[in-house]
Amino acid sequence: MSTAVATLNRLLAWKIRGIRWIEIIGVLLVAAMVFSVYLAKAAAARESARISDLERQISDNGQRVRLLRAEVARLEQPNRLEALSRGAGLGPVDVHRQATAENLPSLAPIPEPRPVVIAPTPPATADAPVGDPAPGDEP
Fold first, then answer.
1. Under 8 Å CB-to-CB from 15, ≥6 apart: which residues?
2. Rounded mean pLDDT of the chain?
3. Is the pTM here over 0.70, yes or no?
4. What distance in Å separates the CA atoms of residue 90 and residue 84, rounded to the nearest whole number?
5. pLDDT digit string (tens) for 1-36?
6. Cα separation of 60 and 52, whole Å?
7. Which of 12, 36, 90, 103 shows a CA-CA span of 20 to 30 A to 21?
8. Please, how many CA atoms are within 13 Å of residue 134, restricted to the half-sphere of its CB?
9. Mode of pairing for the β-strands spanning 15-16 and 19-20
10. Is 134 helix (H, G, I), strand (E, B) or coil?
11. Is residue 11 within 8 Å of 3, Cβ to Cβ?
12. What would the DSSP string read from start to end of 25-45?
């Protein structure tokens, strides 16, 4: 075991230009940790910006929903709909014009099918050529 301890002491005492190599490795590890923290903070800042953008979009969409609900409420006002229907010539159904369930088949009769008309073809005459003559059949 004393050989392993002696080898470890010699390895830790090894110097490069007056600086022990273990100190160089430590400085490199600290630099790597600083760089990784920088990258993590940059990624967190990007995500924070994305989250704030999404929250702004949610707020805008909520405002649009409130405006659309107000528009629907305005359009569905009974007085407005009544004025529009009277302007279009519509009105309430007369009590005497209401149908019962038994009268429905007589109110909507089944339409009769239309007859199919086939156009007659003109008769062929003896003077008219039936088709184009073949290239070698000329008189």
1. 21
2. 83
3. no
4. 9
5. 688 888 877 777 777 777 777 888 899 999 999 999
6. 12
7. 36
8. 2
9. antiparallel
10. coil
11. no
12. HHHHHHHHHHHHHHHHHHHHH
